[in-house]
Amino acid sequence: QELLDVDGEILRNGGSYYILPAFRGKGGGLELAKTEGETCPLTVVQARSETDRGLPASIWSPPRIAIIRPGFSLNIEFRPRNPSACHRESSLQWKVEEESQQVKIAVKEDARGFGPFRIRPHRDDYKLVYCDEGQKR
Prior knowledge:
Number of strands: 10
CATH topology: Trefoil (Acidic Fibroblast Growth Factor, subunit A)
Radius of gyration: 15 Å
Strand order of the largest sheet: 1-4-5
Distance between the termini: 23 Å
Structural class: mainly beta
Order of helices and strands: EEEEEEEEEE
Strand content: 25-35%
CATH architecture: Trefoil
């Protein structure tokens, strides 16, 4: 089965996409925000406005394959056109913090091998899941 974007195009390994809710009126895309005393926005959150697409994200699988399929282990990394000064020391690659279970961005020295995120079919759309040691969270 192929994963398709909102334009009906096949998801490409390393492609840049906006991650949006499946239904209108449920908020916007994903972006970064400051939480819990952070001095820079490091937490992945959903934009409140449905007209805000959020930040573009690169979705890639470590194996060098052209097309992303359901269940592949994926890394996700924001790729803003103009990163802020706060993010020059960050990779913008997603990681899940064990204690809080929040999705954050990684500092450069922690940046590789975080996944595994997966895209799974869900009803007529897809859901993004985090898997740790084969367990869905």
